[in-house]
Amino acid sequence: MMDNTFWLIKSGNPDHWPEWDDQEVISVGWDVGDYADEPWDKFRQRIKDKFDTNDTVWAGNATGAIKMVAGTHRSSNKQMAAGDIAIIIGTDHVFGHSVIRGVAKLGEYEFREEGLTGTGFHQYQRNIGEWLYNNGPIPKTKLADRFNQGGDDSLHLASTIKRSKFQDRKTLDTLLSQLEKIDPIEEPEYGFELEDEQTLSWYLEENIDRLNEPHIDEVSREVQLTKKSRVDLFCTRADGHPPLLVELKKGLGTTDHLDQLRRYLNAYDGHAEGLLIVQQFKNDVTAKVAAQDDVRLKEFEIELTLTD
């Protein structure tokens, strides 16, 4: 017999991981008030009435999720309790990866009328008693096959919440050991990113002064250096200064992007300097470029302004 029940839960819809992390809770929504201890059919009807739907399956799924978290599910093996373990699956992917956000030992259930602080949603909450893992998002694909879809201890989660396949604490300890050994993904700090780099290259071609780079007198887009090498912006410069090769990347800048720019510099027939522009650089990029006196880095920000 297991000492704990193990759960998989998604971090909300939309993703509420920042609030969970900050407020040390897990939670579910479909907020209809403090009635989670009502009989199943009555509570399900309350959800149907609140959301003006006749979809009994949808309302039943919402009822089940709330009652699991509250510990009032009609099936005793689907009642979450203090001391249980929750493996938190990120609702939002990070750079295309489905991730493990955290693993927590759970505390007591609490209904909070105000919902999560800062959102006003997700009234049905369970406190986190202890974090067993919370050091950054880990791609599920980096874990052993047994933890991926189709494996004996799969962490695949299509719904909001369910009992995991774990049968004992030893399986959890194996997962925790793997999570600690894998480097987490470095998350971006910016709010949103461009759909593609072309938008930025078009803008800079027409507003090249925004680069704050001296001596530029002409700029060309998509310049072919070799059969396989094409740089985003090629800037010729006056007064004997070498050309400036500009590579643009949406999102997070990596050492692969830096290496790509280096290949362009090597492919150019003559001396040139390089400029890599992204929304945010990973720490290892800034460390690597410090040893390259012909390459510079710049970060850009996107500002949204609304007017009447």
Protein architecture, described:
The protein is built from seven helices and 14 strands. It has 308 residues and is α/β, with parallel strands linked by helices. It has two domains: 6-181, Roll (ph1033 like fold), CATH 3.10.590; 198-299, Trna Endonuclease, Chain: A, domain 1. The strands form three sheets. Strands 1, 2, 3, 4, 5, 6 and 7 form a seven-stranded mixed sheet that branches. A hairpin with a 6-residue loop joins strand 9 and strand 10. Helix 2 packs across helix 3. The longest helix has 15 residues, at 56-70. The model has no long low-confidence stretch (mean pLDDT 91).
Helical residues, percent: 10-25%
Average of pLDDT: 91
What name is given to the CATH topology of the largest domain?
A: ph1033 like fold
Largest sheet: 7 strands, mixed
Fourth-level CATH superfamily of the largest domain: ph1033 like domains
Shape designation: elongated
Structural class: alpha/beta
Order of helices and strands: EHEHHEEEEEHHEEEEHEEHE
Number of domains: 2
What are the segments in which pLDDT stays under 50 over at least 5 consecutive residues? none
What would you say the CATH architecture of the largest domain is?
Answer: Roll
Q: Which percent range describes the beta-strand content?
A: 25-35%
